[in-house]
Amino acid sequence: MKKNLKCKTGLLLFSLFLFVPLFMYATAQNDVAISLDFTNVPLGKVLNEIGRQTSLRIVYNTKDVNPEQLVSVKVNYQKLSSVMTNLLKNTNVAFTVKDDYLVLYSSKSTNTVKEVAQQNKRNIKGTVSDNFGEPLIGVSVLVKGTTTGTITDIDGNYSIEIPDNKAVLEFSYIGYQKATLSIANATNFNVILQEDTQVLGEVVVTAMGIEREAKSLTYATQTVKAEEVTRIKEPNFINSLQGKSAGLLITPNNSGAGGGSTKIVLRGQTSILGTNQPLIVLDGVPMSNGMSEQATELMSGAARDGGDLLSTINPDDIASMTILKGPNAAALYGSSANNGVIIINTKAGEQGAVKVNVSSSTSAETLFMYPKTQQIYGLTPNATLEAWGPKINEMTADDIASQPYYTANPRDPVKDFFNVGLTLNNGITLSGGTELARTYFSYNNTTQFGMVPNNKFSRHNFMFKESFSLFNKKLDISTSLNYIHQKTTNRPVIGRVLSPLHALYRMPSNVDMRYFRNHYQHTGTTADQMVYDTARGNSKLAGQPIQTWYWYDQHLNNPYWLANMMNDEAYKDRILGNLTAKVKIWKNIAYQARVNVDMTLSSGLNTEYATSMREAQGKGGKYWTSSGKSVDIYNDHMVTMNERFNDKIDVNIALGASLSRSYSRSHNITTEIDTAGIPNAFVPQNSAYKRPGNPNGSATRAEDTYDYSDWSTATFATASLGFWDKIYVDGSYRLEWAQSFQQFIKPTSGYTSFDYYSAGLNILLDKVLPWKMPAVNQMKLRGSWSVVGNPIPNQLYARQTYNFSDGSVSSRPPTFDDPKPETTTAYETGLEVWMFDNKFNFDITYYNATLKNQFMKVTTSTGEERPVNTGKIRNYGVEFSANYRWAITPNFRWTTGFNIAYNNNKILETYKTESGAPYTVQIGPAGFKIKYVEGGSFGDIYVNSFEKNDDGSIMVNNAGDYENAVPAMASGKYETFVGNATAPVNLGWNNTFTWKNLTLYFLIDGKIGGKVMSLTEPDRDYYGLSMRSANDRLNGERVIQNGKEYVLKALPDGQKVSVEKYYRTVGSNPMEDYIYDATNFRLRDLSLGYTFLNVLGKGRHLTASFTVKNVCFLYKNAPVDPDISVSAANGMSGIDSYSLPTVRSYGLNLKLNF
Questions:
Q1: What's the confidence (pLDDT) of residue 567?
Q2: pTM of this structure
Q3: Dist CA 1011 CA 976 (whole Å)
Q4: Helix or strand (DSSP H, E) at 502
Q5: DSSP string spanning 179-193?
């Protein structure tokens, strides 16, 4: 009892300690103590440092305050008021502090107006505020064409004398768009300034969390604001970046409620067996990829996509994201930098009163694109589930009455089966504190009901962050704790096996799916085939639930039986803890240390009732359970120096070391309940019975990975030099050790390491060129070069296996000679231009990256697989993006952005066999192959085609005999190249129209080129479900042969066979008929929102928006969604295999700030 009381008391005290900063604001004072040490530096630099130490926004008019004036100041822990008084002594400048602002103004008069001798002069008064009605302090108000001006006071008020009614006022404020307004006969003029979406002096978070001014960067980056990932919320927030960044390809898997893994590619793919995903960095810490194992057997693997760790992040916690597009930008991460980096920065506590943000969104998901079933011909009587039967409109009343599921009116079985999906997302954030301690807390809940019956998903996110400034702000400490719990129920299966979509997409339209909704099971009796047929069933199933179904076929099940009687639950708990300390050592030299722990616990349970049809079925059902644990530990140390010498040379240096460790272990138990067990008793002990003919056998098997571990460590250095604010050069170097290479070291050679490096140059042409460019605000020419890597998989390459049943040991595998990381040498050059008062900007980049030492496994003459480093793959391309901001009227604004990227991929070299011939790597399931051929491209698709005669004509077996004539297929050779799933051109165009508090947003994106392949359509052709097979039957040439009518279809060379024989042939051998042009343009996102200002009091605003995702296609030439994907495995994107339909969602979002 005492122990529990002590524990609870300690927990209470700890909780109070965590939340104290939220309630300390009431005692905070504006007159804080600061320390300064500057000699002959511009006043603007001193004011910036004051703003940094006090967290105040510095506001002044350059007509009153000269920021270039040289000043000297040296104080140690003195009050702000005293420092400012001494700093502004002997000037005509005064200051005041209110809320979060330090305002400097002319001491002669806050609103000084030069006298203009005009008879019609008069005063104009008003208030300047932002979009939310908050007053703006220090806005410059100028009579255009004169030197008459003033600034707004601490309440946003201004008063200015104008010469006449023709006067025009200009309102300008840093970070906001300039407003130019005609006064006419007005005496009061209130102005709302629109925030500028881009500021040239913005700071960008780069590799290792180092902050750099955007103008100093020598490589391509893009910063994505938080609103881009919360405008239309998705379970996996990364999917919201589709079409919004040049060169970034986002391909989400169609995986039902909860979403699935997402394939992310920056500037093309290169690695065949390694990863092509960019590195994800969360708050400065590299994350484990965390992607579940991806399916490569797309038709019969019965796999589920378990999602990835990105999908566990709460989008409301994201402050911004920075995309480091190429190896040049990411070089400081070494062997993890080959595919670019996406840096995610989460929100933190802010100084000030407690701010509360509440968000709630509800969306409904409906069918957008799915396979359409022909409604002309019906079910083939007394046959398998197919539609080669008679016309539906020719069915008699007796025909319809013969089966309970028949309908005389053709229906859409897909629409009848799927529900309307529902996604609910609710969250709250709290932020506040003082200059010494700040707190951020958030909670978010996502609940999703999928379109497949009984498919559900729920996720709970908790985040808590604290930051402290101690010892006169010489020591900054920040901590964060993030906990995520999620549960997925009955995530759909990929492919045919155990998938409700298999029978659904094969269902003729005269079969009413609604019948099976309430007739998917019955109690077994001895009259049931699954009871009396010992070859297929189990006599113990009498009295047990049995599937109600009329077409017993391999892998073919009643969709409602699978949705209700095959239960799958997957749980994931993730805890992330971070501690960062930064101490100021001396002047502008600081030391930072970070430690991060990321632990994920996963578990799963699957129960499958007997009579579910699949290969190797347990006749009494199946039970499966698993659990796993992974821990990633990251630690780095870094010393930084940021200094400006003689007001000419900027030096930024960082030196450091990093260490990462990963541990994981998992196990699973599977029980295949056979006829000796108790049917549908889902416990491992159900295997205890001895089986006939195998008295020592067991129906239960267990697997354990034991302890898997990985580590890497590195030292690194980076430096950036700026000259006269015109020219910048930078470079980086990283020396890295990885566990995967240490197994190959010799006893005397020490640990194996590899180095990576980069260099870059940046010239601000607008400051260097001798002539003036009035319309140009900034013009930057940049170039960079780098060498980065991609590690080999961490596995024991000389591992032998032990057979516990007979004690045998496998032979030693072939040696891995001279292993190296996959290494990419890349260079890029780009031009960035800002024009017309920063209203228009564009960025164009050319890049070229060549990967060598490709890791692959080749088959030796003895049939063994040998790992090798060989081959080269090159990607080069051009990226272009442009943005324009136009304030059409004071209340109406248009912002638009366009991006387009072209990428060319080519395999320059592959492994050479002993004869010198290029080696071809081939992966993929039956039906097609992805081949990596010298001279080809990454992800090239090959299929079978018609067998040809010597004269080039198609070989037809039994030609002329329409009962037996069939075209011959070149089965198993996969020699026909049909294209590549990756489109060379991708683009996006976004638009935002704002009128007062009303905002309309839409996004159009698309791609040009590339292919999409369907493994579903061949089956639908084979079984007569497709529209084209029905049209050919309806419109084909009819002939009579041997007293029987045949409907014919012409082959590409003019020969003819029966329609049914044709589709039975090509449907069983997927060929070029099922490769479609992936070019498409779609209206992807649409949002209409309105902000109700001060709805619950001043500063408490409510924003409501209506959203639509996947509005419509503007152009498409494929029967499937060209962006379809069921697996994020290499080479598997753009392949449809009994995929879930693409959905259109309608949402309502509410956001309340107070």
A1: 92
A2: 0.82
A3: 14
A4: helix 500-505
A5: EEEE-TT-SB--EEP
